[in-house]
Structure formats: C-alpha cells, structure tokens
UniProtKB/TrEMBL annotation:
It comes from the Bacteria. Its cofactor is Zn(2+). GO terms for cellular component: cytosol. This is adenosine deaminase. The keyword Transport does not apply. The lineage of its organism: Bacteria, Bacillati, Bacillota, Bacilli, Lactobacillales. Its EC number is 3.5.4.4. Pfam families: A_deaminase. GO terms for biological process: adenosine catabolic process; hypoxanthine salvage; inosine biosynthetic process. Residues 6-333 form the Adenosine deaminase domain. SUPFAM superfamilies: Metallo-dependent hydrolases (SSF51556). Signal peptide: none annotated. Keywords: Hydrolase, Metal-binding, Zinc.
C-alpha cells in the first residue's frame, strides 16, 4: 500500500460526509437529500473564487460546536485517512470558530485531542500490518478584523497543549482584505513561546503576502503557489529552503490556477524548491491525497521518484519529533 503524508488539511473542510449525516440525525436536524448535501458541502466547476469556496464551510461549522461532535469528527477523519494510506497528518482548525454554543477555545482543543487520542488507542489494539497513522493538530488564527483577543488566546493555548496533541499554529481565512503583516504580533509571541507555525499566503493574494509571511518568520507557507509570479521571490524561497504546502485541486477550485496540466509543482521541485503535496479540504474539493497524486501523475507526468521527494520534503517540514521523522523516512524506503 502507498504511504502518504498530509501537512495541510483543514478539519472543517474535510469532515467525512457519512459523519455529517450521522451528526445531522443525532441533532434531529432535517436530513437533506444526498444531492442537496453534496451541493452544500462541495464545490463544483462553477466555483468562482476563494470566497465562494469558503461558503461550503457553513454546515460543517454548525456541526462543530459541541465536544462530542468535534471529537467524533476528528476520530472519523483519522479513520478515513488511515484507510487512504496516510502515515502522518497535521490537521488544522480554528478553535475560535467553534465557540458559538457553550464551548471555550480550550474545550474545543481538548475535544479534538480526545478524538485524536481515542484513535491512537484504538489503532494500537487493531493488530494490523498496516503502518500506524500518527497525527498532530495545528491551531489556526483567523484573519478577521476585530479578533485580537481570540487570536492571542489561541496562541497561548497552543503553548499549553504543545506536544500534547497540538504541534503548531497557522493563519487562515479569506486572503486579501487584511494583509498578513497585520497579524505579526501573534507570531512574534509564538516565536517567544517556541511554537512552530505555518502561514497561509500566495493563494488568493499574490507574492506580497508571501513576502509578509517570511517577514513574520514563517518557515512553511500554506499554498505559496503564486510565488511563480515573482522570480526573485521564488529564488529566495529556494535559497532559504522554505516549505510550500501545495494543494492542487483546491487551487483549481479557488481559481488561484486554472489549468491542472500546467500546475507548477514539478517545475518548482526541479528548481530545488521544498514543495509538498497536500489535500487542503477533502470534502469541499471532493478529493483526497491519493487522488491528488494520481491527478498530477496523469496530468503532469509526476514520477514515483518525484513523489518520493515530495514525501521526504514533508518529513523534513513536519512539526514532529526527530524519532517520528526517522520512522517516516524508514517507511518510504521500504
Ligand atoms: Zn488551507
């Protein structure tokens, strides 16, 4: 079985459809038809922008407001990822989006860790030959206008749960209206606290947003694919061995790119860029990591050698321990 690593996977955009249905029925909400549900959760080829793409998160977020629901979603997602052949995943979510009922950010994080730990316990008892799936949680800050308090709370909680389920921080939300640099103070604090982080940039916004993420100390960039619009920046990313967390289908959906055939991951790889391939939002984009690899094999002639490099780049970039990296490198060499 092929082995995969996903470093860029949003929990709310990747809730398994079966889990959505299960939670809708537990809450006694009206159950929509499969067709209606698909329209509500996934984009089609008419998706025009990142903003339209983000509309698909409304229903999942409605179902992510209790401890039980969040735990269930994390657990079910991990089961699905293991079935796909993942051996390591970093799953990200913004705790502040899940406090609409009674939960505090801290309880949201605890619920996600409970789901993760339950999965790890059950996996140990499974007795299968398949390599284990290990995972960590990345907490997202949100690019909103008036949420300084909530963002700083997320940073402090990341420190509290660091290495106990949480592995890092991120900055997410609609790119463009407010530039990344406005959020620098939170990442200065993360640096002080020794929390690793990645920042979304160069997806809906152009090269400037990537430059700002670098200025904020990011060693990993969520997407970053629009660096191709700026030669000098591309070279700087290569020289500094900055990791790009590329997500092909998602970039097609949000129109960051419009032709999968010319998706530049191969080109960047051959220039020496530390690129990785990830799924972003499995349910919203109707994809998963094995499908992303297959798509690039078919459309860009991605070779198995190049795939190994993508895997090893992901190992280097993972927010995890040296021992876990040794395990992951050994898995691909088998
Ligand atoms: Zn993302």
């Amino acid at each position: 079985m092929r082995k995969f690593i996903d470093l860029h996977l949003h929990l709310d955009g990747s809730v398994p459809v079966a889990t959505i249905k299960k939670l809708i029925s537990e809450h006694h909400y009206p159950i929509p038809s499969d067709e209606k549900l698909r329209q509500e959760l996934s984009v089609d080829s008419n998706c025009k922008s990142l903003d339209q793409f983000l509309e698909k998160f409304a229903l999942p977020n409605k179902l992510m407001q209790t401890r039980h629901d969040i735990k269930t979603i994390v657990y079910d997602l991990l089961v699905e990822l293991k079935e796909q052949g993942l051996v390591y995943a970093e799953i990200r979510f913004a705790p502040q989006l899940h406090t609409k009922k009674r939960l505090t950010q801290e309880n949201v994080i605890k619920a996600a860790i409970e789901g993760l730990n339950q999965f790890l316990i059950d996996q140990k008892q499974e007795n299968s030959n398949q390599p284990e799936l290990h995972a960590g949680l990345i907490l997202c800050l949100m690019r909103f206008a008036n949420n300084q308090k909530e963002n700083m709370e997320t940073v402090e909680l990341a420190k509290k749960f660091l290495n106990h389920g949480v592995v890092g921080l991120d900055l997410a939300g609609a790119e463009g209206p407010i530039p990344n640099i406005k959020y620098k103070q939170f990442f200065d604090r993360a640096q002080e606290l020794g929390i690793p982080y990645t920042i979304h940039a160069g997806e809906a916004a152009g090269p400037d947003s990537i430059r700002q993420a670098l200025e904020m100390g990011a060693k990993r960039i969520g997407h970053g694919i629009r660096c191709t619009e700026d030669k000098k920046l591309t070279q700087e990313l290569i020289d500094r061995q900055i990791i790009l967390e590329c997500c092909a289908t998602s970039n097609m959906n949000t129109k960051a790119f419009d032709q999968i055939d010319s998706y530049p991951i191969k080109k960047l790889l051959h220039k020496g860029m530390k690129v990785t391939l990830n799924s972003d939002d499995m349910t919203v984009s109707n994809t998963n990591l094995p499908r992303e690899y297959k798509l690039l094999e078919e459309k860009t002639n991605l070779t198995s050698e190049e795939e190994t490099t993508l895997y090893l780049n992901a190992v280097d970039a993972a927010f995890t321990s040296p021992d876990e990296k040794i395990r992951l490198r050994a898995l691909i060499q088998k």
